[in-house]
């Protein structure tokens, strides 16, 4: 098998290049990475045995106005059709920006309402593809792929506009295409898949059900459960540190309990600094044990500056920012991961005694290690940033509802409840273990540590005509 792997952005690079997918692909033949990463990235961060046999430039995609209108119309049409809680919130957000930007989105919303149904969305998909297929980027990718002649093309993220030209080029050459559904919330909250694929790789049967629900035109035979490679490092014993090693790296006392606060991105979690301040205040006041050590890990897309005030006022806070490279002036999709950060996160999730976050995927990360999680569900700001209390906003989202229903975490709807839940978990970390296990079984359909191997196996089957 010769596989082409389209690495869409930095998070895709973390999931697919910094694990062992490459060695599994090489065991079945040859593989090529198509990416826009700096030339030094693979040499610095990817193990020799996992590097591709060849690299191809992903290039840039200069999206033209008609294609942009078609894409946004598809996005709004998918949200109108799927009608999830998250999508309704997105549809109700006011359109801001320049006059041209507002006109584009208002027109796209109107067109989206008109095509909000499976057949009409399918027709709009074909129209969007026809527009992009005529562009020079598609022709360039067609020439590259014709020379390369891969047996299958895997796209590591189903949404970025930049993946459309190479995927269309592959389809023009009759190369089977597959995409990995990037995250557990993407199908129910992020709008339409960028372009139709021949095959879809999903985390679990639960996600497969969502895919069939939101895209009824997709044949079940083209959906493959593969788990997710972002969790594979948690089963890699070579990456494991002892608790003492983790604490030595962070300046913590291994004999004292550790709480990790996992921050979200500033747009979705604007009150994170306020919640960290509340948490540290509870420690200082003795409402939770004063020996509790609090580690703050911002999201990789966050430069961390918004926490400067709380760090100044609470010097006892352990600052553990993600070890990612951020190019000056670049947007978050161009932030680059490191193997060091993969190792750090794997050991934070293993050794911290409890995690606090706001409706984050980190609930799964810590739960996979059977670490208890408290979800913040109260606002500090008045009025709340999203117009609704956090509890009525985030914890009603379709993808997060199983966390609530399965009892996989506890929900702090006030600072007092935050203290109560932390104290309960610190006294008995086995509380809610059944809920955590049930959530992991629901959301991750392949044993942790086996996802990369499963993806390689599925790609080989697709390449062989399966």
Largest sheet: 7 strands, parallel
Mean pLDDT: 95
Number of strands: 13
Q: What's the shape? A: globular
Measure the end-to-end span: 13 Å
Q: Given the structure, what is the number of helices?
A: 21
Biggest sheet, spatial arrangement of strands: 3-2-1-4-5-6-7
| Amount of helix | 40-55%
Cα radius of gyration in angstroms: 22 Å
Helix vs. strand class: alpha/beta
Please mark out the parts with pLDDT under 50 across 5 or more consecutive residues, or reply none. Answer: none
Fraction in beta strands: 5-15%
Please tell me about this protein's structure.
The protein is α/β, with parallel strands linked by helices. The chain is built from 21 helices and 13 strands. The chain is globular, with a radius of gyration of 22 Å. It starts with a strand and ends with a helix. The model has no long low-confidence stretch (mean pLDDT 95).
């Amino acid at each position: 098998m010769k596989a082409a792997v389209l690495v869409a952005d930095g998070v895709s690079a973390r999931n697919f290049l910094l694990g062992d997918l490459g060695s599994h692909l090489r065991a079945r033949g040859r593989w090529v990475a198509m990416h826009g990463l700096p030339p030094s990235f693979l040499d610095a961060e990817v193990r020799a045995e996992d590097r591709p046999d060849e690299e191809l430039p992903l290039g840039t995609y200069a999206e033209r106005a008609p294609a942009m209108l078609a894409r946004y119309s598809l996005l709004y049409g998918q949200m109108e059709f799927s009608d999830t809680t998250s999508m309704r919130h997105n549809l109700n957000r006011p359109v801001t920006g320049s006059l041209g930007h507002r006109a584009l989105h208002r027109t796209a919303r109107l067109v989206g309402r008109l095509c909000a149904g499976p057949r009409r969305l399918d027709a709009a998909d074909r129209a969007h593809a026809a527009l992009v297929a005529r562009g020079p980027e598609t022709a360039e990718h067609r020439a590259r792929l014709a020379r390369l002649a891969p047996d299958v093309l895997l796209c590591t993220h189903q949404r970025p506009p930049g993946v459309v030209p190479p995927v269309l080029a592959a389809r023009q050459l009759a190369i089977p295409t597959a995409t990995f559904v990037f995250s557990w919330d993407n199908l129910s909250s992020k709008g339409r898949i960028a372009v139709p694929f021949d095959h879809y790789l999903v985390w679990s049967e639960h996600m497969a059900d969502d895919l069939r629900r939101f895209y009824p035109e997709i044949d079940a035979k083209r959906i493959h459960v593969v788990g997710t490679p972002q969790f594979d490092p948690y089963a890699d014993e070579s990456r494991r540190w002892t608790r003492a090693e983790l604490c030595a790296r962070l300046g913590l006392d291994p004999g004292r309990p550790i709480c990790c606060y996992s921050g979200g991105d500033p747009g979705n979690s604007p009150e994170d600094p306020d919640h960290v301040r509340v948490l540290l205040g509870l420690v200082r006041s003795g409402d939770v044990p004063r020996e509790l050590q609090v580690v703050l890990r911002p999201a990789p897309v966050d430069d961390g500056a918004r926490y400067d005030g709380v760090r100044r006022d609470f010097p006892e806070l352990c600052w553990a920012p993600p070890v990612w490279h951020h190019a000056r002036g670049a947007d978050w999709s161009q932030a680059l991961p490191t193997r060091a950060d993969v190792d750090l996160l794997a050991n934070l999730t293993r050794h911290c005694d409890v995690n606090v976050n706001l409706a984050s995927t980190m609930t799964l990360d810590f739960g996979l290690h059977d670490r208890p999680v408290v979800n913040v569900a109260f606002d500090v700001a008045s009025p709340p940033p999203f117009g609704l209390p956090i509890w009525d906003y985030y914890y009603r989202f379709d993808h997060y509802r199983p966390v609530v229903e399965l009892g996989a975490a506890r929900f702090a709807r006030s600072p007092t409840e935050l203290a109560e839940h932390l104290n309960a978990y610190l006294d008995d970390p086995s509380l809610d273990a059944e809920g955590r296990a049930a959530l992991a079984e629901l959301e991750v359909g392949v044993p942790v540590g086996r996802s990369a191997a499963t993806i390689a196996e599925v790609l080989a089957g697709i390449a062989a005509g399966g």
